[in-house]
């Protein structure tokens, strides 16, 4: 295509149409997902020999109870393995590729609600860039779908689409209990903007759907496989003694040895870096959606302090669609589909 304008020796070209540009970006994101997904096998190398046994224990109901009830995390790989004849490793990596590709393509659209194409692309690639430090030498296939459910859930909450949110809550409950946080998110975001009786009824319905699926999965495995209906394993002692205490007492040693960036106590801190702080600067200037949604952050962190391991930085990936847009707003303001005014229009 010939340049239509020349300024100072720099050619100017007409941009692609929005649909064509988004399609091209999605091809880029699919390629990025194709690079990231196989990397998981590198981190799993210590567990690869154990993968067939681990997968079999999921199918026969003898797995560790926390993982056992994350049924979508192993049923799709089983389907790929059985129907297409691929190896179990390929099936799990294919699942990861599918979810990552969807996350990247949808995250771009989500960020585009507040930012121009350049910042939306930068935020999306930022997500791709931090993924490698969330991988560990263990088999944990549930997190990509968990992030996808939170991304779709936040989108549905912002748009006020209760039926869509209910579907995402059910989907997420079949994968990971963290989905329960979407229920109070809906209540916090819409409190005062919808009739309170209607809002409480909708929130109650969402909670009931989550706990119905949560209970049904456990009752099924207990009835069929005699699997103990385990709830959670508290990790308070581990987080205090193995993570938080060494994070302070061994800080100087880690810095001197150049081990800060590989020491497990700091992985969750490094996940977002300044994005742990930037979202809360100029907080009152943020769109109401994010100000209200951000109220879930302390509850999310506290919940994972009790039942999660803080050095597993993947646990905090669902906060990306909350923290990173807010951090970008602190740095650059808003410039997408009407900017702050559009973002506040529902609240």
What would you note in describing this structure?
By secondary structure, the chain is mainly alpha-helical. The protein folds into 3 domains: 16-141, no CATH class; 152-231; 234-347, no CATH class. Helices cover 64% and strands 2% of the residues. It has helices spanning 18-43, 51-59, 65-68, 72-84, 88-111, 117-130, 143-159, 162-173, 182-190, 196-225, 236-249, 251-256, 267-272, 288-293, 296-307, 320-332, 339-344, and strands at residues 5-7, 10-12. Strands 1-2 form a two-stranded antiparallel ribbon. A hairpin with a 2-residue loop joins strand 1 (5-7) and strand 2 (10-12). Helix 5 runs parallel beside helix 7 and helix 9 runs antiparallel to helix 10 (196-225). The radius of gyration is 22 Å and the shape is globular. Mean pLDDT is 87; it is low at 336-347.
Q: What about the largest sheet?
A: 2 strands, antiparallel
Number of domains: 3
- Broad structural category: mainly alpha
Number of helices: 17
Average pLDDT, all residues: 87
- Please indicate the percent range of residues in DSSP E strands (runs of 2 or more): under 5%
Q: N-to-C SSE series?
A: EEHHHHHHHHHHHHHHHHH
Shape: globular
Q: Gyration radius, to the nearest Å? A: 22 Å
The proportion of residues forming helix, as a percent range, comes to 55-70%
State the gist of this model.
Helix 4 crosses helix 5, helix 5 (88-111) packs antiparallel against helix 6 and helix 9 runs antiparallel to helix 10 (196-225).
């Amino acid at each position: 295509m010939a340049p239509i304008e020349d300024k100072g020796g720099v050619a100017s070209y007409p941009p692609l149409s929005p649909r064509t540009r988004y399609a091209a970006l999605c091809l880029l994101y699919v390629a990025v997902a194709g690079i990231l997904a196989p990397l998981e096998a590198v981190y799993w190398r210590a567990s690869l020999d154990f993968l067939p046994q681990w997968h079999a224990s999921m199918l026969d109901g003898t797995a560790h109870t926390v993982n056992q009830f994350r049924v979508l995390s192993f049923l799709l790989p089983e389907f790929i393995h059985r129907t297409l004849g691929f190896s179990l490793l390929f099936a799990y990596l294919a699942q990861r590729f599918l979810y990552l590709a969807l996350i990247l393509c949808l995250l771009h659209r989500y960020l585009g609600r507040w930012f121009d194409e350049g910042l939306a692309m930068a935020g999306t690639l930022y997500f791709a860039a931090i993924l490698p430090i969330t991988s560990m030498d263990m088999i944990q296939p549930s997190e990509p779908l968990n992030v996808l459910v939170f991304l779709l859930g936040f989108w549905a909450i912002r748009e006020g689409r209760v039926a869509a949110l209910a579907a995402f809550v059910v989907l997420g409950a079949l994968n990971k209990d963290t989905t329960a946080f979407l229920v109070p998110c809906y209540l916090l975001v819409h409190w005062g903007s919808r009739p309170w009786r209607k809002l409480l009824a909708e929130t109650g319905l969402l909670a009931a759907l989550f706990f119905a699926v949560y209970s049904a999965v456990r009752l099924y495995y207990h009835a069929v496989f005699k699997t103990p209906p385990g709830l959670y394993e508290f990790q308070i002692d581990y987080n205090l003694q193995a993570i938080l205490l060494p994070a302070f007492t061994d800080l100087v040693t880690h810095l001197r040895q150049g081990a800060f960036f590989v020491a497990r106590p700091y992985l969750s801190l490094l996940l977002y870096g300044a994005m742990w702080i930037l979202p809360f600067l100029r907080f009152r200037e943020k769109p109401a959606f994010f100000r209200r949604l951000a109220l879930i952050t302390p509850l999310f962190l506290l919940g994972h302090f009790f039942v999660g391991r803080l050095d597993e930085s993947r646990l905090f990936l669902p906060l990306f669609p909350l923290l990173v847009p807010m951090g970008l707003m602190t740095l650059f303001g808003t410039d997408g589909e009407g900017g702050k005014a559009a973002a506040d229009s529902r609240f």
